[in-house]
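I am writing to request your help with a piece of structural work I have in hand. The matter concerns a single protein, recorded as an amino acid sequence and a row of backbone structure tokens. Could you please explain, in whatever detail you think fit, how the structure tokens follow from the sequence? Thank you for your consideration; the sequence and its tokens are set out here:
>
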Amino acid sequence: MKQSKMTATKLRIILSITVIILIGLSAVGFYFGQNWLRTLAVSVSRTVADSKASGSDVQSLKKLQADLIARQSIVNKANSIMSSSQNYQNQTIQDLDKYAADTGISISNYNFTQPAAATAPTTATSASAPTVAPTAGSNLITVTLTSPLAYTKLLRFMAAIESNLPKMQVSSINLGRVTGSDRDSVRTEQLTIEVYTQ
């Protein structure tokens, strides 16, 4: 068998080729490593930017929440200005009964006008209160009061209605003088009240 001789020249060539291959592999590895690090750096910078943005969003949301809590009384009052269209009849009856009891007036009847019927043009044919069509977002209730009653009590009753929350407004009243009684007594058959609803 023939023994191969390793000479210094052959060893130098093998070592030179190995060094060149290692340098090439290092360059390729460095290139891929640099691309991977660049991609990772872009991802991290996006994550940092998103976290800063969400942090400022969270802070602005907390500020808005604190503003809403601070202004909760204003929100509650704004919600109470108009009655819900589902329960306005019960609320109106409760309020009117309370005001009648406070002023010493007796209510004998309530008559709620349906919004569709109230918007149709009608004319008054009797000497009762004139027919009034409700404005948009409101409903009418006709209240029959027990007559005769004191004029000052009627004024206090109407003032209580006008200052009510949810908003109510006296639309029409049929008022007359009671003959043969004291000067403070009046008769009224009907009082039409406009109730504002949402």
